[in-house]
Amino acid sequence: MFSAQLINEPFADPGVYVKLKYRDEAILFDLGDLHHFPSRKILKISTIFISHTHMDHFIGFDHVLRICLGRDRHIALYGPPGFIRNVENRIFSYTWNLVENYTNDFVLTVHEVHTTHIMAKRYRCRDAFCGEMIEESGPFNGVLLDRDDFIVRTAFLDHKIPSLAFSLEEKSHINILKNALGEMGLPQGKWLAGLKEKIHRGEPDDTPVDVAWKGGRPSPARTTFSLGELKEKIVKITAGQKISYIADAVGSEENREKIAALARDSDIMFIEATFLHKDAARASTKFHLTAKQAGELAREAGAKRMVIFHFSPKYRGKEHLLNEEALAAFRGLS
Ligand SMILES: [Zn+2]
Predict the structure, then answer these.
(1) Which superfamily, per CATH, for 2-171+240-330?
(2) Can you give the three-state secondary structure of 91-150, one letter per residue?
(3) Which residues surround ligand 1, an ion (CB under 5 A)?
């Protein structure tokens, strides 16, 4: 259901763009420089998750703002403690005296995530972005977004400041086998949504399911089936996909545990790898991971695939060393 890509090459500003297939929608993790990124893709973004507001993770904010201005767009942003002030400082560095006449309204909903609760404020372009507090929820349990088909979780990592890591997980996928449906002489239609809901809720196999025919059923067709029979004959359940995004963090034991738990069984694990392990002392004072640590973490999490990014410019021309080091650790060879 997801297709994910880095927004820039690994020496440039970090960020991952995730397209939700079958929806005209995308999610962004971190807001590095987006000037080389196509505007048509930026216009699909519904939600942006920011790990922390160091410049290289947040400088793309103005670019998104500019592209979306005057359009009927609503973007939700999530960021660490202090995030609302960070966003307001960016917004109010501009003058907004001509926006009330815009036909379309561009709306930003900004969520500031704390370990105990989430604060949220909404900003409307047509109101010159004067914000209104909209909710304060709690207690916070690590879930940022829980939609019908996917869930986004976060963990607080130590980067000398709080840095949020994220996982995006598709809920299990219920596929209707159209051919089998036809062979049983059953119609498509709304009743299938009801069937999926029963499966999602985990109802017992002897639960009766009524089949609804548009314009009445053809006799002598059956109208009621057991949930178990339908699951066996016309349904295929596939596991959901999982993507995790681990940005800046020091290679401490506490971070390791949190990262491995959040990214457990990811299909793709994006993880920063700023330094080579021979420069581990420097990585530690800069509160970043080494390529070896990134590979070990992806291995510990049981990730199927690892993508490293956020390389220090000092290794330009030697990126193969970072890739080789991370891959060796990921495969348990170092
Ligand atoms: Zn940073």
Answers:
(1) Ribonuclease Z/Hydroxyacylglutathione hydrolase-like (3.60.15.10)
(2) HCCCCCCCHHHCCCCCEEEEEEECCCCEEEEEEEHHHCCCCEEEEEECCCCCEEEECCCE
(3) 54, 248
